[in-house]
Amino acid sequence: MPRKLPETDVVLVGFGWTAAILAQELTQAGLRVLALERGGWRDTPTHFPPTVAPDELRFYWRKEMFQDNARETLTFRNNTGQMALPMRRWGSFLPGEGVGGAGVHWNGQTYRFLPSDFEAASHNVKRYGPLADGLTVQDYGVTYDELEPHFDRFEKLCGIGGVAGNLNGDIQASGNRFEGWRSSNYPNPPMEMTFAQHRFAEAAQALGHRPYPAPSANMSRPYVNPLGVQLGPCSYCGFCEKYGCGNYSKASPQTTILPVLMQHPNFTLKTHNEVLHITRDSTGRRATGVVHVDLEGETYEQPAQIVILCAYQLHNTRLMMLSGIGEIYDPRTGEGLLGKNYCYQVVSSVDVFYEDKFTNQFAGAGALGMMIDEFNGDNFDHAGLGFIGGGYIACWTTNARPIETHRTPEGTPEWGSAWKKAVAENFLKSTSISTHGASMAHAANHLDLDPTYKDVHGRPLMRMTYDFTANDRAMTAHLTEQARRIGERMGGREIRVKPRQGPYDSMPYQTTHNTGGTIMGSNPANSVVNRYLQSWEVPNLFVMGAGVFPQNAGYNPTGTVAALTYWAAEAIKTRYLRDPGPLVRI
Amino acid sequence: MGTMLASPAFARTIAGLPWSPAQTSTPQSLVGQHFLTAAEKHCLDALTGRLIPSDEYGPGAPEAGVTTFIDRQLAGFFGRGDRWYMQAPFRDGIPGQGYQSEHAPAQLYRRALASLDAFCRATFGGRLYAELETEAQDELLRQMEAGDLSLEGVSAETFFGLLWENTIEGFFCDPLYGGNRDMVGWKLVGFPGARYDYRDVLDHNGAPVRLEPVGLMGGPQWRVD
Ligand SMILES: Cc1cc2nc3c(=O)[nH]c(=O)nc-3n(C[C@H](O)[C@H](O)[C@H](O)COP(=O)(O)OP(=O)(O)OC[C@H]3O[C@@H](n4cnc5c(N)ncnc54)[C@H](O)[C@@H]3O)c2cc1C
Ligand code: SF4
């Protein structure tokens, strides 16, 4: 029997980006907030100071800050005709674990989805006619205009550096002219670009595109955020994504919220406590709290007035499944919503090799890049192209740790002397253009519970059934061709095109941008949560994270994840607390 | 939790900032830990020496300490598969499902190295892999890579994948782990290591920036034996 603990107002499951934001918002509103995190405490001076952080083997290859695979993983297959097998170690994506979640070791590429991304179904149907067979694309049920103030808050919290492209409707020449309107400019200027970005920008411009500096959560100058927390300037250390920042220069829960939140008397954090499931009363319509287990195997029942899942898309979806809240999607019948519309990110690249120019790519940062948006979302005419959606094309200078990145020209053998020579000659003289494409929801791609494999507690693992769709293959081919055209004009000796082809492979790292599974929408027949991220079925249960995206857009998710979190927090504070119950009545 | 964690893991309730001095989470170099036998090391030197040979461009994998690195890694949590999901049932998957062997890395090495030497002895008149001509060694590596060699009790292709991965790790990791000795891997490619501040060189504009590499434990003169 779990030991019953005293009740709290709000219990947050997980303590990464979304939980940190909510904890700050809800303690400010006077609520007693408890966060349960299954990993350990983490702070800059203890866990990733500059004398510890730049360790490629330890942090990336031995995955010290990522979720412990031995305790729980996913099973994966491309389609229902295959047997799903466990991902015995992480590859294609890297779920975070421990205080700060993946916010500790993200890149900091921080975007607002395009206005049309939130209306991907109605917008595209109106412009191009009915969606292709099998696509289950939906509108978000919330609009860009509604989220604008919340995007603004996150950018100021994080000290994002960038250049506005649309200030209250006025298009700005050096920013992204396709972006939705913004009520104010970025709080910081863009980062200092280096050689590769200059070459990319010149080439893109020559082709008629409008390159702009990528919005970055790596500080371009010292910054004090609205909570009074101070961040230091980025030193372009080159150990950014997959690593913690030793300089307090990358916006993370640790560097933007925790110094204030942790001192709030209404806030408590329990680390190394894993939530097993959500408990409900006999009606099933009210969450009574959660059951969690500590490292010694002791279980506890934690009663709460409000339960909020902040455990990352994958775990939020699985916790809903294990708690029996909602029906799991079945691709044969199309019934059920939990696990439906699982989407990812469809990426490709074009490497550029110089003969006598040095890119010196060790000097870089997680969000140091120039990019174009001409082929993102619906910024271009898709008539006759055979797909909807798109993505951005960027030249980043990051990733250049040598175990991970040692580019070689086309035709180089995979090992031996010739490989060694090619790596030696090209390490300092190459760069890469990335295409970062949307992923449109399809009836065949989904998440459910695995019939065979179990976690450390003996409960079913989640099963992922995923492959790139015909839409996304056409999209990525189009983007890769545009990137090739830019790459050819960057003045290199040669390029190497790395298109996204063949079935989805769960091993090579692509992105940790998993979406869907607990999607949001306009009514309980098409979604798991309403436009305020509130469960339709259990109104005192809220679900954060990219799991609510009905499909994924061309940008990285966290800017939009955070804006949705602030939006939900506001609805809880201003409406739910006054009148606890459904915030949308049908 | 993994034994890799420098500070012991325990559940706790935290209010306020729990930072305390001198608790820095230092890396585990696994100095002095061994898994491999002398015969296995001999075979591994030969294998990694073909993957990254010593040549006119500089020292190869064995000279860089890759065998020492792999030996230590196999003796630790990595070799035991402590942080990998190793629950049955084990089945052969499609390539996109990744590693599916029932053997954690240390046992996979043990079996593969024994089978490879047994195969060589039977096929090449009693000679071990390390005793073959380099052309024959390369040909066997190619066959393993392509999945064309059948080794007793292990998938040669899976072994090749892991071996190549660990060889690159050992060649380019921080020297504190026993590989990349004297930072030869970093010097080969021009990687300056763990310097952590490049603001001064960002406007290089395509010109070379030559910096002596620095590791977590100091400069290139530092060495691990
Ligand atoms: C290498 C990398 C690079 C990235 N780069 C970018 C980028 O440049 N731009 C961008 O937009 N996004 C990026 N992301 C994604 C970004 O990190 C996530 O979108 C963001 O952290 C999601 O916030 P979250 O709160 O949903 O989850 P997280 O921040 O991951 O937090 C979830 C927390 O919940 C905990 N948890 C899970 N299950 C349980 C349970 N059962 N009980 C208790 N606790 C639990 C986990 O341990 C974790 O700490 C990147 C991610 C990675 C890994
Ligand atoms: S690149 Fe900048 S923000 Fe990223 S870890 Fe290094 S110093 Fe921090």
Automatic annotation (TrEMBL), chain A:
Record Gene3D superfamilies: FAD/NAD(P)-binding domain
Record organism: Oceanibaculum pacificum
Keyword hit for Oxidoreductase: yes
Annotated protein name in UniProt: GMC family oxidoreductase
Annotated signal peptide: none
Keyword field: FAD, Flavoprotein, Oxidoreductase
Domain Glucose-methanol-choline oxidoreductase C-terminal: 443-564
Domain of life: Bacteria
Domain Glucose-methanol-choline oxidoreductase N-terminal, residue spans: 231-340
Alphabetized GO MF terms: flavin adenine dinucleotide binding; oxidoreductase activity, acting on CH-OH group of donors
One Pfam family it belongs to: GMC_oxred_N
InterPro entries: FAD/NAD-bd_sf, GMC_OxRdtase_N, GMC_OxRtase_C
Assigned protein family: Belongs to the GMC oxidoreductase family.
